[in-house]
Amino acid sequence: MTTAIHTEETFEQAIVEELIENGGYIAGDPNLFDREIALDKTTFIQFLQQSQPEKWEKLHTIHGANTKENVIKRFVKEVSLRGALDVIRKGFTDYGVKFQTAFFKPESSLNPDSQKLYDANILTVTRQVKYSLKNENSLDLVLGLNGLPIATIELKNQMTGQTVENAKQQYNFDRDPKELIFQFNKRALVHFTVDTDEAWMTTRLIGSQTFYLPFNKGDNNGKGNPVNKYGYRTDYLWKDTWAKDSWLDIVGRFIHLEKEAVEQNGKKSIKEKVIFPRFHQYRVVKKLSNHAKEHGPGKNYLIQHSAGSGKSNSIAWLSYRLSSLHNRFDERVFDSVIVITDRRVLDSQLQDTIYQFEHKEGVVKKIDKKSDQLADAIYHGFNIIITTLQKFPFVIDKIAELEKYKGERKSRNYAVIIDEAHSSQGGEASRKMKEVLSAKTLEEAMLEDMDSKTDDSPEDEIRRTMMSRGKQKNISFFAFTATPKAKTLEVFGETGENGKPEPFDLYSMRQAIEEGFILDVLKGYTTYKTFFKLNKAIEDDPKIDTRKGKVAIARFMSLHPHNLSQKTEVMIEHFRQVVSKKINGQAKAMVVTSSRLHAVRYKVEFDRYLKEKGYINIKTLVAFSGTVDDEGIEYKEIEMNQFGEKELPRKFNTSEFQILLVADKYQTGFDQPLLHTMYVDKKLSGVKAVQTLSRLNRKCRGKEDTFVLDFANEADDIKTSFQPYYEVTTLEEKTEPNLLYDQKSRIEAAQVIWSSEVENFSKKYFDPKFGILHMTSKVLYTLKMILP
């Protein structure tokens, strides 16, 4: 027992000593902590008197001998009304005298008084703090800022046989969330559970329902922390995160109070949540801003952060940081920050987040339509401008124009943050789809859709724009993506130790899966061929105990579906008998089809089958672009669904609709956590396979797994597509244009194809009366074989 206590005390002591010796803290006195108001009154008053003596004297002339008591009462009341975070950031007022509760590090050193005020902050680390009037329970550590407790910490040491899981249990069952120090946004803003290997945190204690987030660095692109040969795996917490500059940076410029309007049982309310940055979010913002501060504009950065990484918050924090960044000469690094995104929520999120930091409106300017307004915003140098991916070329051209005709005006520098957030609309703006599809067969429809669009994503268009304009020394690009293509790595990546382009910062799909932020869609992936072989196993499943169920499953398992109607039966029966019971009966499915004609015919067939069987609890929606002419009948998405295109995401989110049939829409950028199953009837490969199947990976309460039934692809091909993005994407070989000519020479030397044949082929290929639609599959196959 003595050894265990000594071991845990040693761990605690090591943290405290580091924070005091190198972290900018002083040792707090647990006896000074007032349990009734959860405040170190002595330190609080000391801070106000020393940092703002004139204001204190002014208030003293009003309150006299009761100044301390009245100021504390006023402060406690303000925190109770406005919340701790707001009072820490904006201060409080007593009888017209405005006090700051904390001072944050200035972005530049132009004002020496600001640095003095920052130095006046008093950070305390206090051991074994007794916080309750009801019992003698104590917290291992409390981090205080000017007397106010802003973080509580429970420590465990593996050598005692306990881990962070025990610390979580301690918070959940031994710490009453009604105690003032634990009340949401009333005192401590975050609660850490820490052992020698891992760290977790939460911003709201609610007993057994408390939700914890990992605050770990990641180990070999997975969860946890790497081995630290110099000490504990978690020592980055007290050596960096909790150290004065980092900690006050997080409190002042990262922690965010998110407010969401919710409606339940007809009653509207505001749901509040304190957002504390996860480790990789703080790391990437700090890393990027430090690099930009040192090297200035003209750099490209690729941030490969998986789905589930919280990119919206990362972009918001980075935008704010870059907009006020100064270099070592106290000059602004960027005159404007331009955020390129199609996320509709990001503009309001950015505005709200930055308002909490700046306490003023108008910092963020959103422009999604008129180019002249965008030009005006760039010309007048708004701090932060948000616009859409479609406006990216215009932005770059306008910046170049301003630079070219600047005259006597000083050059302006820009940070352009590019958010991959692929449009769920299937890229109508980037893909030149034929407005009316009139193919007569499904095979023709598939080829016609393939021929009438490019396989370009917004990522491709951005890359082409940058390459065509050349490097611009007054612009730095910060590109966020979960699935970078090889070409994107060439443009945005930095050369690693192996001489190949790689991301500037990585939060891998593997880490996101292992940390529980997204689901691993490959775990539930199966081809129909494999699924059929499981027939016997499924029939013997004890969960399916009705004779009717066994017969139905045996029926659709034995179909060997080759035509659309058979596949329809398989999908609907599987959804009805298996999927519909998932996620507490709320599960939804997506059918990925090969063309717009496929989507139309599937919609018609699905609805026919559902009506024939009397399955009134399953309803479908369809998503495709333009108009489809099928045997003289024209179909449009808006008419088949009977409501507007923009309404589809909201409608599908209701309990009225269960299955969404898509043709090149909603395969990317569509965030619907209730999507559990995907039926794939389309050839997929590479990044498209990853982006499409990843529609299922979003988590929600009750969602424990996902399922993919693939009629069109091989399992090994899908696995190969995912592999580059599971951990880190690197470019195996840089693109060398001359390789194409080398290959041409080899083909000519081998006399595989004659130049005259190429010319004749080209004439036919580019002849609008002939075109690729009339090329036979044998010709396509032959070309594939001789032109690998």
From TrEMBL:
InterPro entries: Helicase_ATP-bd (IPR014001), HsdR_RecA-like_helicase_dom_2 (IPR055180), P-loop_NTPase (IPR027417), Restrct_endonuc_type1_HsdR_N (IPR007409), SWI2_SNF2 (IPR040980). SMART domains: DEXDc. Residues 292-502 form the Helicase ATP-binding domain. PROSITE patterns: HELICASE_ATP_BIND_1 (PS51192). GO terms for biological process: DNA restriction-modification system. One of its GO terms (molecular function) is type I site-specific deoxyribonuclease activity. It comes from the Bacteria. PANTHER family: HELICASE SUPERFAMILY 1 AND 2 DOMAIN-CONTAINING PROTEIN (PTHR42927). This is Helicase ATP-binding domain-containing protein. It comes from Desulfamplus magnetovallimortis.
